[in-house]
Amino acid sequence: MSQIDIRSPKHCAKKGLNFNFLNKKLFKILSTLILSILSLILLIWFILHPSKPEFILQEIEVYKLNFSSPHLLNSSIEITLETRNPNQRVGIYYDELQAYASYKGQQITLHTSIPSFYQGEQDNNLISASLVGNGLPVAPSLGYGVGRDQASGKMALVLKIDGRIRWKVATWVSGRYRVNVNCVTILPLTPLNPATGYLNSKQGTQCSTII
């Protein structure tokens, strides 16, 4: 004669209660572990307190800046930038950097990609890039501005760099942060000839960096 096991509703409820209790306990353990890891990362982050990178425009040369029509601008600009990592314990990855030149609030060259690179603690790197714009549509008023600056012998040019950076602490690498760099420089205009435009050089211009 087989034994009949009859579970009362009270017994089943008790079993379900034990199961829920174990789930809640496991959830609390995992939550505490995750919060502890995040807290440790934040603590390390605030102790190290990474400073944003510094950009210095070492040299800029304008080989061409003329108009093929009142609405179309031709430009050729060479730049040399120095990047500095001021941090003692934090490295920096530079990703998806693109540079272009702006004049009187209008873009006068196409975007030029700068290869990605890593910068160690307190390292310096030099970046060179060619910025070109052939037949770039601009407002007709820009021609008047160029002519007036040529007459005065100086020009205010803005170099812009957009991209993303990542912080590296030991083996940990952060997510990507957007970075925007603006280098404003006043260039003396030295005429070469009417066909090629002007060649200018400027050194040591400090740039502003926004992250």
Overview features:
Immunoglobulin-like, 211 residues, eight-stranded antiparallel sheet, four-stranded antiparallel sheet
Task: Note down, in words, how this protein is organized.
The chain is α+β, with helices and mostly antiparallel strands and 211 residues long. The protein folds into 2 domains: 1-49; 54-210, Sandwich (Immunoglobulin-like). The chain has helices at residues 9-48, 141-152, and strands at residues 54-69, 72-84, 91-103, 106-107, 112-114, 117-119, 124-137, 154-169, 172-173, 177-188, 191-193, 197-198, 205-206, 208-210. Strands 3, 4, 5, 6, 8, 9, 10 and 14 form an 8-stranded antiparallel β-sheet that branches. It is elongated.
Query: What is the number of independent domains?
Result: 2
**Terminal residue distance:** 79 Å
What's the rounded overall pLDDT mean? 82
Q: Over the alpha carbons, how many angstroms does the gyration radius reach? A: 30 Å
Just give the CATH class of the largest domain.
Mainly Beta
CATH topology of the largest domain: Immunoglobulin-like
Number-wise, the strands total 14
The secondary structure category is alpha+beta
- The gross shape turns out to be elongated
Number of distinct helices: 2
Portion in helices: 10-25%
User: How much strand?
Assistant: over 45%
Unreliable residue runs: none
- Supply the CATH architecture of the largest domain: Sandwich
Largest sheet: 8 strands, antiparallel
How would you spell out the order of helices and strands? HEEEEEEEHEEEEEEE
List the helices and strands and how they pair.
Layout: H1 9-48, E1 54-69, E2 72-84, E3 91-103, E4 106-107, E5 112-114, E6 117-119, E7 124-137, H2 141-152, E8 154-169, E9 172-173, E10 177-188, E11 191-193, E12 197-198, E13 205-206, E14 208-210
